[in-house]
Amino acid sequence: MTINYSERIPNNVNLSEDRALQRALEGWQPNFLNWWQDMGPEGSTNYDVYLRTAVSVDAQGWAQFDHVKMPDYRWGIFLNPAKEGRKIHFGDHKGEAAWDSVPGEYRANLRRIIVTQGDTEPASVEQQRHLGLTAPSLYDLRNLFQINVEEGRHLWAMVYLLHKYFGRDGREEAEDLLARNSGSADNPRILEAFNEKTPDWLSFFMFTYFTDRDGKFQLKALSESAFDPLARTTQFMLTEEAHHMFVGESGVARILRTAQVMKELGTDDPQRLRSAGVIDLPTIQRYLNFHFSKTVDLFGADESSNAATFYSTGLKGRYDEEKHDDDHVLKDSEYRVLSADLTERSVPMLNALNEVLRDDYIKDSASGVGRWNRILNKAGIDFELTVPHKAFNRNIGPLAGLTISPEGRVVSQEQWQQSQSQWLPTPEDRAFVQSLMGRVTEQGQYANYIAPPSVGINKQPMDFDYVRFN
Ligand SMILES: [Fe+2]
Ligand SMILES: [Fe+2]
After folding, report:
1. Which of 158, 214, 260, 451 could serve as 254's disulfide partner, Cβ 3.0–4.6 Å?
2. Which pLDDT value is given to residue 7?
């Protein structure tokens, strides 16, 4: 499974044996590079960045580190090896052989799933486009760029599937993935959270913690797919995704150096802390509330006949499908979802699979928030960050537009309006956080609002030249 880097498009799928496909992808490649120039990390063209690049998909080869000039990064097509005799293990086709090609009757749904996933990858690069100009250290700048190049590669992963398995409409979809833009008024990205701004580094860390984790859950569900090429490509994407969430979790943890300053100054007064150049905890909580609520919307409506179809036809499984102790067909199972008055009701589980995935996601999100709280606790600070109630600030499904507090209390429209400034980032919060964003480019130096990391990338020292500007 070694990746052939002598070809124009590095790959481990024997691309050179399929001349038509190779030509089609080589035709898309310059469009991708143009998009990267226009919409990718601003001003990064001449930098040498200490990046990891995959040379094979096995444990030894997937993380090779070296300084790379950013536009020379070798985006390519890497699939995990096929498992001999792999069987479909859920839905109506359970027990049958996994598919190497797309069954005609599932073509439209599969294409839609792949396009929706593919659309998020370049979207996040666009959202993060300006962050390099305000990186708090070379270490952070390098992590941003690592995430950006890998999201670019995830786009390649989906475009390969579209080109190889979906003919002309697949090629058109691949073009459209470069034509839509995050936040564009007339041609936006498909999902709402991917049209939001990521204007500062607190937003970036919250985004990579919460929204890249949505990516993890979607990819985990797709890695169960009966369509084997989709399963194998998402399995490899997941190895890269872990670092993105690490950047988010450790980034917020480092910003919680606020706790030390609170101790030193003996205050929890946000204004005094802001004057000291750190971000007060209530503001961090409001950012958390925003990113969490935007992200839980990504899982879709709590009841969805599409979700049922995707599962029953074998296109998309559950998180850790094989760990569920049931029949993996789910025709007779039920699941509890929330009504608009926040009471629970039982519905057929097949229809509630978006909610099942959302609930698994919420559990996973909460564990890292617990680790952030241990930092506050150890510093002797009496403040707990919390994951808001899942009905808070929702925009999809029956919970959309309800006025629910972060604790899960139904409040009046008036109370909701009055409490906005305590629950979600205000323009003043955003302006303050923005005011801290100055670029730090000296080796081993870190902006005041954020602590240095506890270990370097690939065990390099803290003052390593993670980025060379040339
Ligand atoms: Fe991704
Ligand atoms: Fe990611």
Report:
1. 451
2. 85
